[in-house]
Design goal:
By secondary structure, the chain is α+β, with helices and mostly antiparallel strands. It has 10 helices and 10 strands. A 6-stranded mixed sheet has the order 2-1-3-4-5-6. A 4-stranded antiparallel sheet has the order 8-9-7-10, covered by helices on one side.
Length: 299
């Protein structure tokens, strides 16, 4: 999958969040949000491990990674005032969350190795990284290599006792059932398989039930996006450089804000009115944050 053009709301003005750090709080919140979705039923226990040699080993608490992660785990919006009390709220909900510093071969300094356990004793293990500025990537689920940035709806199809040919046949059947998708990858590991289909919409339940009925399919997991602007296969924007932007501004007599609305509308494939509405919401959050800050806050 080629690198997509940046999004104003995802990468420039965003993430909208409380401090102190986007790479610690917002990224952790997004990873926690995905963790919550990976298991069916209610959460019972979550274990997060940081590599002793990584940067999070000494910063995850002071910089609010634990707060952000548990806030996402509980389904709290990142702007919700209750995020600061997320650790206490988890206890009230009967969810045990532990953060451990240990030794393991992490390839990235901001690595989260996570184990999620449901009340039905379903266990899912995954590895994710914070890439900076709130951007994340889930790189491994149950030993399968993946690349999930939270900018698509993901349908994960797990298969048992499957060979390469059977996996590819099942993958073709899944693609026929879903039909309208952006990207699809399939991976095999010790006769277990994973099909990951990325879409710009949540695949309907009726289709999911058909997929579950396919031979070798053991489980289907759906993940909702965790960033405000979705991506897609044929993602084009009106300009990719300042020179191109200035040319369009002169040709169409547009102000800077109008260029920004035009760009983000194309990037997210959403109406310009929706872009403007999202920006108004952010402005209100900023205004409220200033008012609260002037009153005096603590963290």
């Amino acid at each position: 999958m080629s690198k997509l053009p940046p999004s104003i709301f995802n990468d420039v003005i965003g993430p909208v969040m409380r401090g102190p750090s986007s790479s610690h709080v917002a990224a952790a919140h997004r990873i926690g949000s995905l963790a919550r979705q990976l298991v069916g039923g209610k959460l019972k226990e979550v274990v997060v491990e940081f590599d002793r040699r990584g940067s999070l080993a000494t910063t995850y608490h002071d910089q609010g990674s634990d707060m952000g992660f548990v806030g996402g785990l509980l389904g709290l919006d990142i702007t919700d005032d209750r995020v600061t009390s997320a650790l206490e709220l988890a206890v009230k909900h009967g969810i045990t969350v532990s953060f451990n510093v240990t030794d393991y071969p992490a390839k990235h300094p901001n690595t989260y190795r996570v184990t999620v356990i449901s009340t039905e004793n379903e266990v899912i293990r995954f590895i994710a990284i914070s890439k900076g500025g709130g951007a994340i990537e889930v790189q491994s689920i149950e030993g399968f290599d993946v690349s999930i940035g939270g900018d698509f709806y993901e349908t994960l199809v797990f298969l048992d006792n499957v060979g390469k040919e059977e996996l590819h046949r099942t993958c073709e059947k899944v693609k026929m059932l879903i039909n309208n998708f952006e990207f699809c990858t399939c991976t095999i590991n010790n006769r277990k398989g994973l099909i990951d289909i990325k879409t710009t919409y949540r695949v309907p339940g009726a289709v999911i039930e058909q997929i579950k009925g396919l031979r070798h399919v053991s489980k289907v997991v759906q993940l909702d996006p965790v960033v405000p602007i979705l991506s897609r296969r044929d993602c084009t924007v009106p300009f990719r450089s300042v020179t191109e932007m200035l040319r369009i501004a002169e040709e169409k007599n547009l102000q800077l804000w109008e260029l920004a609305v035009m760009y983000e509308s194309a990037r997210g494939n959403i109406p310009q009115d929706e872009v403007f509405s999202k920006m108004k919401d952010i402005a209100l959050i900023m205004k409220s944050a200033i008012e609260e800050g002037l009153k005096g806050t603590y963290y």
